[in-house]
């Protein structure tokens, strides 16, 4: 068998999968997005831009997604980096495996159940009444953007921790000593050595979290109480409740486009920061 | 040679320095004065505490007991970034995200206030020129060969003009030929800069060829300190005689003194050895006899031996000899001397050496 033929054979299942599960559905979504809604819902073939002209009706969902997804990613990053640094460099190697397992333990329970737990914590009888006990008024936490953020960070943190952990784990500890030896105090060593050399992990983790957050619908549904909804919630509504498939398809197509643009811009920025260029040290 | 350093104040001192990790003692009771401008090596097998000693000078480790002084100042507890010393790491530890010039400039860029860009660039050029890497500034680290990376590490470590340059097995990763060239270069660089160099190595040849003084370590202690010639000619223990160069060790018994020399009985014959002052008649003694002191003759006076192995090593030939009286001996014969090349295993010859060639050591 010729090598090229063999290669094609090996690649065939993956190609077929991608074709059936990604390319075809995307084409269907694109085609639907130019159609019109039938009288009883569903799809009637047409060639109209009406759905796209109508996108403004769902502007709030886009706004929430485009603010909370990047903000959630950033918050995850800010919390995950020191944690990953601790796990990779500071933690006693004997405890490292156990600590790493602790990071993924929450994944053993469904995100649905964990989010319901947060309802109890953030709801009227939870944290707010504790704060009231301390005499600082009774804030409303549940069904706010704050609650959604808490859920997001809680749910997605491990996805950010692991890539950064891997990048920092590969970091040669001698480099930190070399930096110190050459006169750099710890904080500057962090800025000039640890941070730039962890950027590959930061890029991977941010991508993972950001892409998943852009499609998130469960956490806003449960902790946002229908007040803080994402594009994902709009899609659930359009496809399952109001059965306006063409409009839903237009929203979905727009989301894919927005994601493509932001991810490309982000990756290009990361490449500028870490990829073979000299101006990496954030001095 | 070391004497010319002795007058001035030491650039660094270890005073009764002990380092313990939990129950493990890495070094104990180190006492050493390092003189300004000298090239000093810590020599010893792995695990002897030499790297710990170096890391305590750098500040990566703190002494459990005793004091480390640099330039007369007690630096116990002072972090590495505040110490006027720089280090060349074993695997170089160059920053992979910075190019060669930025690696070299790193030390200067840590100064506050930050020096001017033009000033840094000029200093980087000078440092790269010193290690013969002019024009390599924009290269990436991974584009450099092992030898070149080592030069970059060297340039990076000297740019701040440290009071002491610490070198942690800097040539372990280089091949033999390159290592030899680098030894010569390192020595001339040291003369040019006038900086004190402190080297850690397990390679006796490296220590012998570059050092003004060598500090031999074993099991966390300093065993003997001296010039290379000193250590080679007058080792005070079997450990040193074995570690610096090679030697034949002969168990003997003190028979008496003959002038400056000690007469020792071994295997029925009497060997006249240097040293051994104060040893009582009848006490046990170990004699050290360097392989190059032994000459092989077809016949005549001397120790009858049988050749068991002949190992040709180019400039000299090594013979393994079996003697009924003294057991196994090793002799090294330079190429061109009459016996070389002539003796096959099984040959019966006579081993000779002059009086005083052997050195008496304390029996262990």
From TrEMBL, chain A:
This is ABC transporter permease. Its main location: membrane. Keywords: Cell membrane, Membrane, Transmembrane, Transmembrane helix, Transport. InterPro entries: MetI-like, MetI-like_sf. Pfam families: BPD_transp_1. Belongs to the binding-protein-dependent transport system permease family. CysTW subfamily. It is found in: Cell membrane. It is a multi-pass membrane protein. The keyword Amino-acid biosynthesis does not apply. The chain crosses the membrane at residues 66-86, 98-119, 146-168, 189-213, 245-267. Residues 62-268 form the ABC transmembrane type-1 domain. Gene3D superfamilies: MetI-like.
């Amino acid at each position: 068998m010729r090598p090229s033929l063999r290669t094609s054979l090996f690649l065939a299942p993956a190609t077929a999968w991608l074709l059936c599960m990604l390319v075809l559905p995307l084409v269907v979504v694109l085609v639907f997005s130019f159609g019109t809604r039938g009288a009883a819902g569903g799809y009637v073939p047409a060639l109209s831009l009406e759905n796209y002209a109508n996108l403004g009706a769902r502007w709030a969902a886009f706004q929430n997604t485009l603010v909370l997804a990047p903000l959630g990613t950033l918050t995850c990053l800010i919390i995950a980096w020191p944690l990953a640094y601790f796990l990779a460099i500071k933690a006693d190697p004997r405890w490292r495996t156990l600590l790493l397992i602790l990071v993924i333990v929450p994944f053993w329970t469904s995100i649905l159940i964990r989010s319901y737990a947060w309802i109890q914590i953030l709801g009227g009888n939870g944290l707010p009444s504790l704060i009231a006990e301390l005499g600082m008024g009774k804030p409303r936490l549940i069904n706010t953007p704050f609650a959604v953020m808490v859920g997001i960070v809680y749910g997605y943190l491990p996805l950010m921790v692991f890539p950064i952990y891997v990048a920092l784990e590969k970091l040669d500890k001698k480099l930190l000593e070399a930096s110190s030896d050459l006169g750099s105090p710890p904080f500057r060593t962090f800025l000039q050595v640890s941070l730039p050399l962890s950027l590959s992990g930061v890029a991977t983790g941010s991508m993972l979290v950001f892409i998943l957050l852009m499609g998130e619908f469960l956490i806003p549904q449960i902790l946002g109480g229908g007040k803080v909804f994402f594009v994902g919630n709009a899609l659930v509504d359009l496809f399952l409740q109001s059965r306006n498939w063409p409009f839903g398809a237009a929203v979905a197509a727009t989301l894919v486009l927005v994601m493509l643009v932001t991810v490309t811009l982000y990756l290009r920025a990361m490449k500028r920061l870490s990829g073979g260029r000299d101006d990496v040290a954030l001095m | 040679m070391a004497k010319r350093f002795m007058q001035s104040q030491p650039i660094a001192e270890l005073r009764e320095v002990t380092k313990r990790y939990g129950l493990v003692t890495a070094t104990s009771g180190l006492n050493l004065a390092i003189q300004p401008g000298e090239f000093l090596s810590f020599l010893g097998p792995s695990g002897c505490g030499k790297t710990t000693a170096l890391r305590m000078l750098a500040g990566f480790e703190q002494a459990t007991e005793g004091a480390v002084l640099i330039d007369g100042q007690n630096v116990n507890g002072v972090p590495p970034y505040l110490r006027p010393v720089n280090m060349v790491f074993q695997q170089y530890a160059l920053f992979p995200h910075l190019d060669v010039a930025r690696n070299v400039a790193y030390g200067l860029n840590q100064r506050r206030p930050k020096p001017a860009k033009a000033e840094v660039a000029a200093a980087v050029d000078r440092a790269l020129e010193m290690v013969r890497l002019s024009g390599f500034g924009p290269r990436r680290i991974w584009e450099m060969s092992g030898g070149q990376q080592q030069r970059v590490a060297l340039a990076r470590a000297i740019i701040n003009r440290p009071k002491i340059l610490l070198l942690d097995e800097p040539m372990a990763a280089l091949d033999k030929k390159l290592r030899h060239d680098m030894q010569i270069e390192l020595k001339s660089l040291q003369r040019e800069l006038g900086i004190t160099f402190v080297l850690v190595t397990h390679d006796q040849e490296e220590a012998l060829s570059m050092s003004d003084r060598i500090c031999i370590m074993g099991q966390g202690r300093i065993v003997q300190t001296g010039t290379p010639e000193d250590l080679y000619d007058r080792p005070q223990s079997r450990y040193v005689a074995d570690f610096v160069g090679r030697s034949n060790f002969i168990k003997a018994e003190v028979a008496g003194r003959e002038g400056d020399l000690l007469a020792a009985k071994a295997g029925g014959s009497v060997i006249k050895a240097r040293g051994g002052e104060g040893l009582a008649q009848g006490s046990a003694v170990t004699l050290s006899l360097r392989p190059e002191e032994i000459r092989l003759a077809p016949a005549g006076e001397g120790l009858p031996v049988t050749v068991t192995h002949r190992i040709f090593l180019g400039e000299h030939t090594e013979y393994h000899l079996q003697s009924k009286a003294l057991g196994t001996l090793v002799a090294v014969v330079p190429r061109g001397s009459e016996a070389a090349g002539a003796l096959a295993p099984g040959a019966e010859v006579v081993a000779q050496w002059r009086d005083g060639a052997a050195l008496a050591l304390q029996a262990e």
